[in-house]
Amino acid sequence: MQTAIEDIHTDLNIDNRTAKDTLRWALTTFGNKIGIASSFGAEDVVLIDMAVKINPAINIFTLDTGRLHRETYELIEEIQERYNINIEVRFPDNNRVKEMVETHGVNLFYQNSDMRKLCCRVRKIEPLLEKLKDLDAWVCGLRQEQSVTRTDIHKIETDQLNNIIKINPLADWTDQDVWTYIRKHNVPFNKLHERGYPSIGCEPCTRAISTCEEIRAGRWWWEEPEKKECGLHGRRN
Ligand code: SF4
Asked: 137 has which bridge partners?
């Protein structure tokens, strides 16, 4: 896999391509074996807008953890209506959630980092892994400037954790690039962005931030910045 990635970098100069070109290349190359993972943040709606204009039948999926904001559910419906598409919604395993909640409580994530990671594993990672079994590549909205945990991401990577190729078309975009695109193309976005939430995850684990804080400061705000990933984006090459 690593050799294949290096060949792609060399042959296609992917890291120097625009987001749209990267996405077009990915959708064409992987056909029906690629999916766009969306949590309906600002980057995700940009990718949806770009992707649907390239291929209206592209598979777009989301993980419904059962703990999302009302505004996120409303946005899912708005996006489906706007683009006339069906978003594939993946859910956690009922028995896994039941066992976890009965053993550790419904808000276990506030107890400590291990409990938070367990909840993310059951509600996000396990459903994602099930979905990725069907794919050769997936597309994410990760950007280098989002946090200290994301400064080294590339537009194409080997996702060693999940053993497939991962495409990050917006890797080198700034926050301003994202919002310029959204305004220019009138893309629907999560209303929470206008209330101090630049990064949106599950409702109990996301808070609004002040203008002097970094973008992901409101995610799992009780944890150290270096630990603030849910595990969906394990280290890659
Ligand atoms: S973000 Fe919070 S509620 Fe959502 S899966 Fe992770 S720990 Fe659970």
From this structure: 34, 165
